[in-house]
Structures are given as structure tokens and as C-alpha cells.
Amino acid sequence: MLQGTLLRGIGSFYTVLGEDGETYTLRCKKKIRRERLSPVAGDRVRFVPGEGEEDGWLEEILPRTSQFIRPPVANVSLMLLVAAPVPSPDLLLIDRLLVQCRMQGLRSLLVVSKADLDDELAERLRKQYRGADCPVLAVSAKTGLGLEEVREAMRGEICCLAGQSGVGKSTLLNALLGTQLETGEISRKISRGKNTTRAAELLVTGGLTVMDTAGFSLLELTGVMDPVTLKDFYPEFLPAEGRCRFQPCLHDREPGCAVSAAGAGGEVDAERLARYRQLLQSVREAWKDRYHSS
């Protein structure tokens, strides 16, 4: 029995890259379905190759290190969060994605694309995320700025690009991998992009492994989170942890809140703190309604 990584699934057929460097077309054994498992791009699997023109069989899905339901992918280890001058950055989405990364144990990198259009955005975001354990890199697919730095960060990881439509994720992938993925033009009327990627597929080229998928721009926090735990996914809050007057403290303007004081004093970025409180409100509402959802 061989081991490999699932690249893509189409219908009832799965393409797997074996550890020997060969690709195999496989069908899924019924026992996997009985275990209520569905193979997804990124899965590490054990399989039996086919003989002659017969397809092989996918026998086992190995334990996943990370998993997303929408889009359905597994074992991503580095998420590239892509922002751009146009469309205007949705930093609340970036913050949501950062929380997801930390919940799943993923590393993150904030990539500011189209840097040739605005050479100041990356610096503004470095200031906002300076304590968030998320490096910020300015890149340009047009000029080549920063591409090698991004490639270096990607080596040895299963990577995924995430961000709102229109920020140039497919264009950036083409520049990083030397591929020719379909790209979409930004609508001039509404300054939003059109999704050009439809199904999840793992691309392996030039020593890099990248998930080509749409849908991360729609990502919400998985499940229902106890509001008191949200702060644990903000590394910049850690220096003030335990110093608030009341415990536990949600850092939502409570009297004697050390994080509020850090925000007022500039140790925590005020805009990032304001978005944390915005996200906290939605988490509180979901928590309150957790027994009423069907």
C-alpha cells in the first residue's frame, strides 16, 4: 500500500500524488464513506494503485492536522491573507481569518498585493498587525516586488490564499508558481471581483504546494465560540492578560481593563482593538442564540 496527497476530486474519482512522484486515479472504498469521511484536497491518504487500465482504490484517510468545511480542504499549514489597495481592504475579514488560523494552529502571512498601486498600505498594515504574530509583505505581480520572499515563506508548507474577491489571488498565484490560472477583472461599478476558482485543487509546482480554491472570502468563525475565549486568539493582548480589574475580562470597555489602557497608550493598535470588539459582538450574539438555532 502506498501513501500520497490528494490533489483533487471530480465526481467519484480522486487524483493522488504518490510519494514516488507519480499521480494516480483512484476510487474511494465504501468503508471510508461508512466512517462518514469525505476525501478532500490536501488529505494524506493510503491507497492501492490500479493495474493496467483499472483504477486504484483509496483505502484510508490519515489524521488531519487542520480542516475547513467551506471550502472543504485539509492539512493547510500556512494561510496567505491577501489584501490590496483596490478593492478597499476588508480588515474585519482578515481578523476573522486570523482567528481561524490560530484556532487551527496555522501560520499566517499578510500579503499586500498590487503594491505598485500604493506603496503605503503595507506600512499601515504593519503598524496595525505589529503584535499579531502575522508578518506583512508587500508584493506586486506586475513588478515582481516581494515574490521571492513569499516563495521562501511557502516552502515546505501546504499553503492557501484567502481574501476578498478582486484582490488578485489568482494573478498572485500565477506569478508565484508560473502557472496560467484564470483571472477575473474587477467590476468598475462596484469595485468587487468575480470568483474565478470553483473547486478546490492542490497545485504542486516549483517546490511549492498551494491550494487553489474559492470560498475563503466567505469564511465565518467555525461553530459557536464562548465569547470569553475570543481574546485568546489575539497575541497582542497577552502582555496585559491577568492585569484587568475584573476576571475574566472580555476587554470590551470594562472598568479597569488593561487591554483598553494598552489601546489608549498605543501598545495595542486602536483600530484592531475596535474590530475585535465588533467581532466580539457577533460572537456574543451567536452564543446567546446557540440553543435556538436549528
Unreliable segments (pLDDT under 50, ≥5 consecutive)? Answer: 183-198
CATH class of the largest domain, named Alpha Beta
CATH architecture level-2 label of the largest domain: 3-Layer(aba) Sandwich
- Gyration radius, rounded: 21 Å
Mean of the pLDDT scores?
A: 88
CATH homologous superfamily label of the largest domain: P-loop containing nucleotide triphosphate hydrolases
Assign a percent range to the helix content.
10-25%
Structural class: alpha/beta
Number of helices: 7
- Number of DSSP strand runs: 13
The portion of residues forming beta strands comes to 15-25%
How many separate structural domains? 3
Main beta sheet: 6 strands, mixed
How is the CATH topology of the largest domain named?
A: Rossmann fold
Shape: globular
Helices and strands, in N-to-C order? EEEHEEEEEHEHEHEHEEHH
Strand order of the largest sheet: 10-9-8-11-13-12
Distance between the termini: 43 Å
